[in-house]
Amino acid sequence: MMIFNKAIPRRTFLRGAGATLALPLLDSMIPAFAGPAETVTKPVARIAFVYVPFGSIRNKWMPETEGAGYDLSPTLQPLAPFREHVLVLSGLDNRTSMAQPGEGGAHHTRASATYLTGVHPKATDGVDIRAGISADQQAARELGKHTQLASLELALDPPFNAGVCEPSFSCAYLNTLSWRTPTTPMPMEDKPRAVFERLFGDSETTDRAARLARIKENRSLLDDLTETVASLTGTLPASDRAKVNEYLEALRDVERRIQLAEEQSSRELPTLERPAGGYPASYEDYAKLMIDLQVLAFQTDMTRVITFMLAHELSNRSYPQIGIPDGHHGLSHHRGDPRQIAKIIKLNAYHVGIFGYYLDKFRSTRDGDGTLLDHSMIVYGSGIADGNLHTNEDLPILLAGSGIGKIKGGRHVRYPKGTPLTNLYLSMFEIAGVPVDKLGDSTGKLDHLSA
Amino acid sequence: MISRRILGLAGISFAISSSLIAARQPQAATNAAANTTPAVQYRTTINRYCVTCHNDKLKTAGLSLEKIDVENPPGGAEIWEKVIRKLRSNAMPLPGMPRPEKAFYDDFPAYLETSIDRAAFARLNPGRPAAHRLNRAEYVNSIRDLLSVEIDPESLLPSDDTGYGFDNIGDVLSISPTLLEKYFTAARKVSRLAIGDPAMRPVDEVFELPEDLIQAERMSEDLPLRSRGGTAIRYHFPADGDYIIKVRLLRDGGPTNGDGGTIRGVALKRQFDIRLDKERLKLFSVGGEHFGKSGDEGDEYDRGDPRQVEYETRGADANLEVRVPVKAGPHVVGVAFVIAADTAPEGVIRGRLRRGGKNAEPAVKSITIRGPFNAKSLGETPSRQKIFICRPGEAGSGNAAIKLASLNPGTDADSCAQKLLSSLAHRAYRRPVTENDLQHLLKFYKTGERQGGFEVGIRMALERLLVGPEFLFRTEKDPPNAAPGTVFRISDLELASRLSFFLWSSIPDDELLGLAERGRLKDPVVLDQQVRRMLQDPRSQALATNFAGQWLQTRKLSEIQPDISEFPDYDINLKEAFAQETELFLQSMLEENHPLMDLLDANYTFLNERLARHYGIPNVYGSSFRRVTLADENRRGLLGQGSVLMLTSYPNRTSVVLRGVWLLTNILASPPPPPPPNAPPLKDRGDDGRIKPVRESMEEHRANPACAACHMRMDPLGFALENFNAIGQWRTTEGTANTPIDNSGQLPEGTKFKGPVELRRVLMSKPDQFATSVIEKLLTYALGRGVEYYDEPVVRKIRRETAPEYRWPALVQAIVKSEPFQMTRTREP
Description:
The complex is a heterodimer. Chain A is of the alpha/beta class. Chain A has 2 domains: 1-39 and 191-278, no CATH class; 43-190 and 283-451, Alkaline Phosphatase, subunit A. Chain A has helices spanning 10-13, 23-32, 58-61, 107-114, 135-143, 172-175, 192-200, 208-235, 238-263, 283-299, 328-332, 338-363, 422-432, and strands at residues 46-51, 86-93, 152-155, 179-181, 184-185, 305-309, 366-367, 370-371, 376-381, 397-400, 411-420. Chain B is α+β, with helices and mostly antiparallel strands. Helices cover 42% and strands 12% of the residues of chain B. In chain B, the strands form 9 sheets. A 4-stranded antiparallel β-sheet of chain B has the order 2-11-4-9, with no helix packed on it. Chain B has a 4-stranded antiparallel β-sheet with strand order 3-10-7-8, with no helix packed on it. In chain B, helix 23 (656-666) packs across helix 26.
């Protein structure tokens, strides 16, 4: 066999750089597009979760004072321009991520699996993974009734796909924060082009006739497949039906989307060029492109729920562009070394800076009679408090956005010891009109969000 | 009375003497004295050495051995298998605790194994893999084999979740709405590529090269010998027509999307050519033109004459394009700088000398293929030939076409469609096609045919085929009315699928499918022949790529980013070379019938010039990979390869622990337990603030008994490899203080070694451990489910059958013949 004449596989050498969907595009978009139907009369709540791994260096993150006049801490300085739209919440716990007997050191896995679910994940290496329904998916069940996509999940790290991650736990728990059912993890998209295609289909263009033709094709496929699966499941042993039922569930979800797409097909969409494929060369460009796509998704009401990881738990990405050649995970185990700590502080602030870009885009995007930021609730935080010691109490959490006037920002609120993070999600559900009053380890809603 | 007393005295003296004998020969005497079975002795030993920790109250590591019945190993097989594993690898009791004598470590496991195996084979549990959705690799390969279309997996489908270290585990492969939509999109793309779409609008396909790829040498086998930089792309042209191929060069400075920056190397006059299937389409002169004064690179205010600036930022590569008619199908597009004929041959240029600028060597940033324009007929691509075994208006197969002009074209087309779609479905669904199957496909054919004719009809039917559960899922049927827990042999068709997905990660081919349909796979001779044939087939590369890549975790390589300030010589080309070396090496292991140990000890590897220089091996020239015999013993086998050495290190330093864990897990079949929560950090600086050499900072692992238990098994293995730095280079000192490397290690049981060669000898002295590990992994991969305790008897049997060399083809054959592979059982309710 002529193995030596093989051209080195294209994929190993080639990576695409996304075309930046920069502001100018959005400017030209605004006259053409129509936002959500109810905008003028009743603004629509959006929910987003932005995640960073490994917690923070507490003494630089946590403001020392509380209340409305609190002093912004060093790490949170990049958010100074948005002070009035941000609540610093401290004292919230993620206790379900604690190790159970026999589980050993899989802290990051548990932090990741519990952050949005409040349910301790099952310690398994592959068979029967199980967590709980996550907060974003609970919200999506309600809010997704009106949008083509129930929710959108993105990450700036590719999924772990080789070998074992942390002992006793499947890598599936690290690859996502989002669980549609206790046994269905939602994959997180890390390629800008794929996100674009999720939003606007795989056409090169957002042209209406092409979209309609596509919708019709998909519908007939769906109808036939539903029939096929029905007859297939009859012949299968009970144990295998569950697998094929997942397929059926997925079909139904796609069908719902198609239906909405039909109803909304008259809507003008901005003229956009699909990103080329692969990843932008610089992390910042990558992050910004993914953020731009998220803003677009909210603006066009493609979805109202987004979950976004700036990096996975256990990520070992290095940040040479700010002078940090060390892998993030290794760095987070600083063992008290002041040099390492300084680097982490810098990295924490860097990520907060990217969140600042996020808030800036939201604030500069008109949404009905206000801005996207006015009508959103965005949680920024981590499932681990101290990355070196793997603690899960008093997590670094921010709540940004005004939640259609129901949230009063500009304050640092400290909650009593033992308050679960999931209580925050219940409060968000109430504001957004999601009829769920228990999630994982929640004990009730959080007070003091509105004043 | 007296007689009783005498007897009593005799009894005492007998007891005394027997206890004296007992002191000298414990087993024999106890046997003789009380007629105890080995089981009782073993129980005594367990009580003495194990139950101190593993009792009902403490349940250390969740295990208690206090009450388990030693006389009935099969009854407690799940626990006993754990015990066997620990004893066979000498891992328990923990170092430092009192240990039973050496014989126990062989006798007791042997006793357990014999008993468990006997019971197991009398009433076998072959397990049951879950219904299995095709993973990404399997999907792509199946499309290739079904339609002769090559697609790029990463752009179409997300990667799959893994379990037990592999991405083909049925239970873990779920299907979410996102994934289903991607299958819809993929089916559309694939069917258009395969059949062609005459209504297709011109599209842009852009291929970008990473900025840190060094383009200093010939980049591919598909580029001319005297070329530098650029790349070769294999691209499936969707239709016959004209295409524009446009090249954009790399720019320095300016915003990161490249506009506005100065073209690298624009001051140098160079030749550049674009080729299609190695034939030159056009030769260009690029760079070195003057339209005015050039700016000073060091001075941001001196940009130079505007016309020159225009040339340097936009004009120099504006004409690097060519419009050419291309026939549909796969072709290789090559773009590269050409080295003039009268220049002396160059070695590999160290591109890093000049990081960028107008006088650095130019490089390619992206290639855009735009088209088709004036799309004409859909041509005869390999995929069209494969699909269209008949045409409307012709009866019979494509080869023996007879034009039956008198027949009604409608019926003709329909019967051809039926024939064609049956054939496709037969191979895609991996079983005979039912009326029902055909009806579903014909429904779509008719819709498409009404819209746009015969070929559009086929295309729509193909889309339906590619998203259906019949294609995407592998399911196995139970016999009707079987009681739960019934064990039965899977059908030949199901076996054929298991075989082809195991060895090729793809659908069975016609030969295998045909034999299965005729029930011939039940014949062990036929099965044997097929396995041998399949291993010889090029498609078995999938085994090296997918199995070995995941087992040894070399896939992780793509995520690793060494610290450039520590390793200024490192670049992407090197990482690609590492991956290529190991892939070629693993393939040779499978193809050339090597014994298992050659993985560690082979005296050859595959190198190109870049890699050879990195390893310090002389006399290897050129960018293509070739087999090289290794003179240096230290480099032999996997442990001398950059891929393994790099993925077991941190970005800026080596890790003896990571290396030790890798070896324990993958070679010695005894993965260490996870670290305890909140293990305190190691100090890597001394009290005086200087950085400690690695060995010194690891001292704490040894000094602290809580750490030593596990670390004294891991660290010594890693120490022996310390001469290899974090990117696989050989070194004899470390750190800025140039501390000499101490590569000695000692295992808890006393074995000592120094350096890689001696380490290898120690690893190779335990071939059974290694073989067990490999067999378990291979079985996991072959079955698509994790290996459970009830599979261990099978693992042991396979090991016996393939000992002592454990050659790869023998391992594969043994797995294929094994009960879990050929049988299954109905689930318990």
